[in-house]
Amino acid sequence: MNNDTIKPEDYLEPECVVCGKPEGTKQKVSHIPQTRISEKLDELMSEGEYLQAENMLKFWIGEAQMSNDRQGEFMVYNEMMGYYRKIGDKDKGYETIKKALELLPVLKYEESVSGATCYTNAATVYTAFDEPDKAMELFRKAEKIYEKHLENNEYKYASLCNNMATTLVQLKQFDEAEKLYYKSMEILEKCPQSELEKAMAWLNLADAYIARHGLNEDSENRIVEYLYNAQLCLDDENTERDGYYAFVADKCYPIYEYFQWYSYSDELKERIREINERS
After folding, report:
1. How much helix, strand and coil, in percent to the nearest 5, is found in the chain?
2. Under a CB-based contact definition with an 8 Å cutoff, are residues 79 and 38 in contact?
């Protein structure tokens, strides 16, 4: 599932930010443009402008701190976690986790959906750098929050299940991982426009099956079902062929190529090319 793109609404809680002032006092806060930052980051990353993306994030962290925008600061740290995970910078990724988690009590987000988003983002960083035990500790915190606040957060909960399952595969806890992949898809059935996430869950199941049983004739026969179900999702006629579709297809086509579904892999590459040409 695409848990790399974190949207501003993940951080905009209805409650006021705790600013350290006595109760009843208000402090003027100038908010940074979260939506514009997120969109610009997506644009720069898609173009491979990684240094420019990092400089932009650092700039907005400074602006948020100067204007006392703790929500904005929190949002940018969450974006930074995904950025450093993608470029493989463990030290900066871990440093950003620390800073984001330190803001949770300041914002009173420890038990909120925003907190769950932060725990999930941090956990995916730990998973990427082969520390699945640390990741699972944070995933479990997020899971408890979503179980209490499931309504209107089904999509995020499904994403959590998918990410947790991937980490459990690292820990070789295959039975629980498989249950979570199926649970994520069950939740996604209630979410509109979720075919791309289902496709990635099916392909993750294929990876997990190979990790458990190895690559042999029996396992290859079994995963045909997973590859086919993912294809049905990717081919869904109601799914918009936009930049996000290209992002997902770019993650999917190498898997089809690996299993020698060359024709379909080429078809996904062509769809990506057409989307990029329109952009």
Report:
1. 75, 0, 25
2. yes
List, for residues 63-78, the tens digit of each pLDDT value. 999 999 999 999 999 9
What are the DSSP calls for 42-59, one per residue? Answer: HHHHHTT-HHHHHHHHHH
The predicted structure's pLDDT at residue 173: 97
DSSP state of 79: H
pLDDT value at residue 27: 52
Task: Tell me which long-range contacts 80-87 makes (C-beta under 8 A, separation of at least 24).
Answer: 81/121, 81/122, 81/124, 81/125, 82/4, 82/5, 82/6, 82/121, 82/124, 83/41, 83/45, 83/53, 83/54, 83/57, 84/125, 85/4, 85/124, 85/125, 85/128, 86/4, 86/45, 87/50
Angle at alpha carbon of residue 165, lines to 159 and 168, rounded to 5°: 145
Query: Which SS3 state, helix, strand or coil, does residue 268 take?
Result: helix
Tens digits of residue pLDDT in 132-180: 999 999 999 999 999 999 989 999 999 999 999 999 999 999 999 999 9
Cβ atoms 253, 265 nearer than 8 A? yes
Q: Which of 238, 242, 249 is nearest to 277 (CA)?
A: 242
pLDDT at 112: 97
Q: Which two tokens stand for residue 128?
A: 């990427």
Task: Let me know if 205 is exposed, middle or buried by CB neighbors in 10 A (0-12, 13-18, 19+).
Answer: buried
